[in-house]
Design goal:
- The structure is a single chain.
- It is built from 10 helices and 2 strands.
- The longest helix has about 45 residues.
- The chain is globular and about 65 Å long.
Length: about 300
């Protein structure tokens, strides 16, 4: 995602704050489906293999959330069957599915945010406001990926010396797993001490310490920020006029396809697809540039001789 990596951090942060916030507060089926599909497409474009591997954790979590709602909520007019004399309604099932769809979309947007919003971008945004909080959040964002990588290395090393935690009886597996955990904790503590010494050597926390930044706010960033703010304003205006409301209880309110709702759906779709549209634009520019270079080389007099 070259085009997204070239954007200013404030643009990236504003976009994900807007799209994630809207997804968390919307329960309209059309808007939830749009958000979920666009979040999936963005994650596939960023790293399809890692996203596919993460689905084994995301999908069961969403299914559990969808199953819990009809078991604890018995509101609704369309009763399908009874469990222990408690009605299971269609409205409760659909509401549970909508909740799981919303949770998945939010998790997918946060996953894309963690891939694009790197540590240096986060510190650049919040370092001057609250350096300690910015550092804590950036270190936390890096903690899990680094732990997973180091755990993979430790597991491979243990397998190479014949101490695989997945082999042997229960007691042998527990001993091997405890050994891996001890090595991982020791590495984490040692890495923390090295990071602290490195930060102290670089003058972290001293008054008057300057910071280096490679981020420049361009006209393109300003245009995108204004575009994001415009789409957000449209959604707020629609919410004020109840154009994006949908009710599950006591029964479904029905989907409206009048022109106000169509404006809400289309503007929200463009907002959710904005990163992919930027990437497609960048790909088109690159192909146009390479084709012009190829044509110029073909018609160059030096090549003809």
């Amino acid at each position: 995602m070259y085009s997204l990596n070239t954007l200013h951090p404030i643009v990236l942060f504003s976009y994900f704050a807007v799209i994630t916030g809207l997804t968390m507060f919307y329960m309209h089926p059309v808007l939830l489906i749009i958000s979920l599909i666009c979040a999936i497409l963005l994650n596939v474009a960023i790293d399809a293999r890692a996203f596919t591997a993460s689905l084994k954790w995301f999908v069961p979590f969403a299914l559990i959330a969808a199953l819990i709602n009809p078991l604890i909520s018995h509101d609704g007019e369309i009763v399908l069957f009874y469990v222990n004399y408690q009605p299971i309604t269609l409205e409760a099932i659909i509401y549970g599915l909508a909740m799981s769809c919303m949770l998945l979309a939010v998790l997918f947007w946060f996953n894309a945010f963690s891939k694009l919003m790197t540590t240096d971008k986060f510190i650049y945004l919040f370092g001057k406001i609250s350096p300690a909080v910015a550092l804590l959040i950036s270190v936390t964002m890096r903690l899990i990926p680094r732990f997973k990588q180091q755990l993979h290395l430790i597991m491979n090393a243990q397998k190479a010396i014949g101490m695989d935690p997945s082999v042997g009886n229960m007691w042998q597996r527990i001993k091997s797993a405890m050994r891996v955990l001890s090595i991982l904790v020791s590495w984490a503590l040692e890495n923390g001490i090295e990071s602290a010494d490195s930060m102290k050597a670089r003058g972290y926390g001293l008054s008057g310490r300057s910071t280096f930044s490679i981020f420049i706010f361009t006209k393109r960033d300003g245009s995108l920020l204004a575009l994001i703010a415009s789409f957000f304003a449209i959604q707020l205006f629609a919410s004020w006029h109840d154009w994006n409301d949908f009710y599950f209880y006591p029964t479904f309110s029905g989907l409206s396809w009048q022109w106000p709702q169509l404006i809400v759906y289309s503007s929200y779709a463009v907002l959710a697809l904005l990163p992919l549209l930027l990437e497609l634009q960048e790909v088109r520019k690159w192909r146009s540039l390479t084709s012009k270079i190829s044509i110029s080389r073909i018609h160059s007099p030096n090549d003809l001789h």
